[in-house]
Every structure is written in structure tokens, then in C-alpha cells.
Design a protein that fits this description.
alpha/beta; three-stranded antiparallel sheet; 407 residues; five-stranded parallel sheet; Rossmann fold
Length: 407
Amino acid sequence: MTGKKPCTSFSAGLPIEEPECFYGRQEQLERFFRLQRLDLRPLRVLGLRRSGKTSYLKHLSSKEVLQEWLKDTPRRMAVAYVDAAKSVATPRDFYLNTATAISQAALDHLGWTMPEVPGDFSTPQAFDAWLNLILKAKSDLRLVVLIDELEALCKDPEKIPASFWGHLRSLASKQFTWVTASFIDLHQLGIADDVVSPFWNIFHHEPIMIGPLETQAARALVADSAEHQNILFDEEEFDAILQIAGSLPYFIQAVLEKWLELRKDGKPVSQCREIILKAMLRPSNQISRQFNWYWEHFSVGQRSFLNRLAQGPAVAAGKNIESDFEDYGLVYGDEGTLRIAGELFQRWLESHSAEIPHAEGAPSSPSSIYSQSGGVTINAGTVNITGDVTGRDKGESKRETDAHSPT
């Protein structure tokens, strides 16, 4: 479904709503449907902010995508999308939003009308009763609920108590399951119930990583968008755009939009690179602010690692921090050598090198989500965590996408 329609209707940072405008992520799509086709499995989707997690989830919940991937299976599946950051302050909000999304997904995907959604779910048992009514009536139905922005449910433990997570855990079955999307891994979010096993214990051991976009998909995105503007790129321009942007879709989209704007204004190709770099690295630019957000959410050790790599390529040493940044698309490996992905991030790091402590044991900034002391606290939108970038189990080394050069 890649490249079927010129996709210049999106703006950098906005989720992709139309399946024909979704590029790449084939391995992640295949893995999701492979695991869900027979027996439903709780899965966790991990990726940086603006990596494309929301676009991926919305793609999974599209009727056209479900029909294409499930055409050879007799089981009926509905996939509901829930944005945990939108109008969810209490469990009652979550249950109501989830029931509404399930009802709409069943109607859109299968043409089924679900039992009327109550105006309120005053208790978890009320949601159980509504859900069981559906599952018993439709024994061949498989329901998957995608929870986007999971961190939003962890900001106020007084409003979202520990027992909430135990209840979510109890709902997982052969007919019903959860798929979560977050920047922070589940076992680092403090989502546990002292009475039952942790919520994250039921999830598949390997996350689906939303990291670098495949080179072929990135080039297709660039080519289709340029063709729609009646502009033909030569190889030099393809390479320049991806060298500047790196391999994360948000930055590719942003650089591409600016490049096309400059070309339509008659700017020569030789000037486009420096104009874009200068504009996007201004402190007020959204790209620069995005890098600032990343920086605030990395530990001192992670910042030092990136600082050293910004000074020049380094031989891969097989450390967790290297594979974490590769998985997230900020670093790529080339024949055993590690490099920063994208000239934008490289230049940004160079300009901020004086702000990076070199001492590994130096205290991290107050706004960092990674603390040196350990533990997890989430309040007022601030998160403090210990661990590697993804927080995945040390034994997990298999990646969902191969690290690659952005060109």
C-alpha cells in the first residue's frame, strides 16, 4: 500500500490518516498481524516522540488495512484506537472512550452494531458486563484495543489507581487484548497492582520498535511528493534530503516540505541544504525544539554518548546504549561504524556540545526522565526513570528494523 497516492496533504508532525499515504513499516505490520492472526497477544509499541507511533496505530485500525492483512483468516477482528492523552482523566473516562471506540470499530470493520454504550461506567464491573455481552454474543469476534500515549494514564496515581492496571490485565483473553504505544517501556512506568501480577507481565517479550524508516520507503515518500509538485529529483537531491533529515519520518517530511518550497521558489539545489539547516536549527524552529525535547529526556550518560559520536564516527562496541539509539533512529551503523543519523541532529549536537557534562556520574538535569538513582515517579507531567533509552530487558537484542544509513 506504499506510494499509491501522492502524499503531500500531510504536514510534518501530523499523524497519517489515509492508508495509501502510509509509507514503510512493513516488518512491524507483518509482526503485528502474525502475532494477532491466531491468538491475540498483548503487544507494546515503543518509539521516540514524533517517530510515527500514532500513524502506525491508526494504520492498524484502518478497515482497508485489516481487510488486506486478514483476508485469508476466517476469524473476524475489530481494532479500536484510543488516545489516552485525549479526555482521559479517570478510569471512568478510559472505559467510556474505549467502549465507544470498540463500538465504532465493530461497525466500521465488520458492519456489526454493538450494544448501546452506557453514558457512564461507574465501576470496572460495569465495563466488564458490557464487554462480556459482546464477546459472548459474537464468539468468533476478536477485539484489539490500541492505547496510544500510554504515559498520559500514569501522571496522576490518585486518579488512576494501581487497581486500574490489575483490571486491564484481567481483561486480556483469547478474544480481547491490548496494544500499548509509549516512549517509556511498561515496566518503567510504575503501572503495577500489588494484589495481582504486573500489567506488563502479560505482554509479548519483544516490543515493536517504531524507529528508522526503511530507505526504500523514505525514497518513495520523497519521490511521490516531488512528482505531485511536478518536480523531478535527481540522485543528488534524494541523497541530500535524506542526509539532512536522517531516517525518522517527521524530519524527512519537514526537510522535504522545505526543500520543495525552495525549489518552487526557484532556489538552486546548491543553496537548499544550507538554507534548510540554518532555518531548522534556529531555537524557535519546531525541529530544534524537538531535539531539545529529546535532550531533556536523555540521561547524562546518553548525552555524553551522543556528544562523543557527534565528534566523529565510532566503532560499535555492542553496548545496549548503541543498539537503543539505533532502534530509535538517532544513530545508524555502517559496516561496524556508528554515526549520528542526519545532518540536522549532528549539527544540533555540535552546537550544544558545551552543555553536555562529560562525567558519567554527574547528576542529570531536573527535567530528565532518566534519573541516576533509580525508581519511577510520574507527576505533573514529569517522569523520572532509570534505564536505557527503551528500558527493554537486557536480553532483548533483536530489532524490528535494521539500522541503516539515511541515504
